[in-house]
Amino acid sequence: MRFAAVYEKTPNGWSAYAPDVPGLGVAGATKVETRRLLREAIVLHLEDLRASGQPTPKPRSQTDYLDVPLKS
Predict the structure, then answer these.
(1) pTM of the full structure
(2) pLDDT class for 11, splitting at 50, 70, 90?
(3) Which residue, among 33, 53, 1, has the nearest Cα to 18 in the 3D structure?
């Protein structure tokens, strides 16, 4: 499965979450570490859902960047 991830720079490092996996968020010192932690957290969360007989979320979110011109 492929989930969208949102990364945010914080005063102490980075935080991240996957919009399609509610309630799951991680933080790390670097973006690389945070990416690894998010991937591991998603895997563990999905395994836990399956083990308890709950449905797993389907990836639905998409990401994009928009160029916004600023007028002087």
Answers:
(1) 0.88
(2) very high
(3) 1
Give residues with Cβ within 8 angstroms of 36, minimum separation 6.
Answer: 28
Nearby residues of 20 by Cβ (< 8 Å), 6 or more positions away:
3, 4, 57, 58, 59, 60, 61
Question: Of the candidates 45, 17, 63, 43, which has an alpha carbon nearest to the alpha carbon of residue 27?
Answer: 17
- Backbone angle region of 53, left / alpha / beta, with phi > 0 → left and psi within -120 to 50 → alpha: left
Contact between residue 24 and residue 11 where contact means Cβ atoms under 8 Å apart: no
pLDDT of 37 above 90: yes
Collapse the DSSP code of 63 into the 3-class scheme (helix H, G, I; strand E, B; otherwise coil) and give the result.
coil
Residue whose pair of structure tokens reads 């969208």 in the numeric block: 4
Structure tokens at 49: 């859902």
